[in-house]
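fwd from M.: "can u put these together and see what the complex looks like"

so here's what she sent:
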Amino acid sequence: MNSHRYCVIMCGGVGSRFWPLSRTEMPKQFLDFFGTGRTLLQMTADRIRDVVPPERTVVVTNRQYASLVAEQLPELASENILCEPARRNTSPCICWAAHHIHAIDPEASIVTLPSDHLILREDEFREAIREGFEFVEEGDRLLTLGIVPTSPHTGYGYIQLGECAEESSDSKLFKVKSFTEKPDETMARIFLESGEFFWNSGMFLWKADSILKAFRKYAPETAALFDAGDTIYNTPEEISFIDNTFPCAPSISIDYAIMEKADNVFMKTVEFGWSDLGSWKALYDTSPRDTSGNVTRNSRLLTRNCSGSIFAVSGDKVVVASGLENFIVADNGNALLICPLDEEQRLRQMVNDVKSRFGEDFV
Amino acid sequence: MNSHRYCVIMCGGVGSRFWPLSRTEMPKQFLDFFGTGRTLLQMTADRIRDVVPPERTVVVTNRQYASLVAEQLPELASENILCEPARRNTSPCICWAAHHIHAIDPEASIVTLPSDHLILREDEFREAIREGFEFVEEGDRLLTLGIVPTSPHTGYGYIQLGECAEESSDSKLFKVKSFTEKPDETMARIFLESGEFFWNSGMFLWKADSILKAFRKYAPETAALFDAGDTIYNTPEEISFIDNTFPCAPSISIDYAIMEKADNVFMKTVEFGWSDLGSWKALYDTSPRDTSGNVTRNSRLLTRNCSGSIFAVSGDKVVVASGLENFIVADNGNALLICPLDEEQRLRQMVNDVKSRFGEDFV
């Protein structure tokens, strides 16, 4: 195992797309989504372990979730949990983590992973990460993983490939021509048929040195903030420096800040059964179904005239349901959601309504 | 207040028609059904108090529920709670209670009431009970209350009226021509239009002496069992006598055992906004609705595109529901039911399925 290889798991996210299963105090990455006994964060850590060991894995999270991370990943030393004092999207997170790791090992290369995705074929994932490491370690390169699309999905950003990367013999490595926002249905179909567009997975590889250089060139404000602490990373002063600095960083994604601007961005196309689990529909699509086409997480369920529905009921609760077609039934703690699957885009609004009418305890 | 007047509240029932709100360990009569702070049993006791005081009110229940009754009716002396050692329908219950009260007061007259009905106009109810007492105290008469029907309900038994009772000047008192079972829809419409048929409310008045006489004449087996304890009612030996005797009594309703056979049965027709709350539909029909025609018990509810539905969610839970028309959503403890209102007749089967598949803890 190459001892200069590090992993950053981004674990600070909070979302309402799986309310009431996920909560502000217990976001999606901390949930045992498939009833397997392992949370999405644990699955992410398990998945990378053969490539990067826990001692070189860093989890960046919001301070609010520090104890959850420590509890779910007991193999992680406490200094490997970096606590953001504020929510600032992925760019400041990645910049800090790169500085932190660079201070430990100036020759470090890093794979950066979201903590809440699903990957079905983990061997192929690890193989791709190893190949990615080799590629970025050979030069000053920023690499993103592009997922071979399997449907005209309108919920993902797409990356358009350019020429083959001459820098490598890997036939799945390309220069990036463009990043695009989430397309509409028509555009998504054109993307899919063209064969030129790949789903933006949010997984990246680079040397610590390369990404810090890119920050200085393309995101000088963020770079300057974090460069000011150059001598304190990986020292006892790091926490108070970050507490003062981090909240001043512009809230921006790494895609906007760096990837869409840099001229040394490459994409490795991969196919390993990926989903960002960004919606109930995505969970439905990636979950095994019963003979009526229903998905049940781990509940005791009796259905009659139900089809195409997803039942996500926590605990040992019995659910008796009749006459539901294409519904979400999600029950957790002090909240119950019953909603057609095709209305889930309204969920954020519903959750906001719950918060404003009934208070924060319910979201 | 006539000090020979007693009340028997029958409180031993257990049903599955409001599962999962009602449970084997917490039947319907013990629930605060309307979120008013009073359970159906408490509402029953409150309602009769001005006619019969607590010291002359006896609650007959199953031993399993004795502590629930004591808790919900703290005004009741413990000797006023009669505990059945087994479930034997209404006939043995009424026979025992009559003996018990007769031993206290041989001149007693008794109103017998179910513990789980709804009555909207309680003043009219009390007026009818007072008139009923007067009627049965004048002679050897068995009186049942017949509800003026407001719809061709197929869930109730009907009583056909005969001639006016010459024995009284009360124009609402009649001889009974016949008792009928629950009719089908066509027959129920004929009943309703005829003006001759009234809903069997299960509320009765008689002197203790009269009903005991009727038992001896029409239900001699039951009568003999309970007459054998003639000297022990209202003594410390009553409990062990009942524990031995009660389980031997035939399980039969008072209608079958006595009312359909006796020749001194009268009906008083009444209209006081009555429902037996025998189904979710009955609860829906008797509950106030929001502007979309939804009934919510006491839950924090946000609906969208929902109509004609009833939401019965216990505790302080938030419910967000969309796209439900004419549904029951009932959530309580370890069970959740989502089912079209017009399928509620299948509920008993569903509850049996839950019991056999997941165990008694869920029913």
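replying to her w this: DSSP finds eleven helices and 17 strands in chain B.
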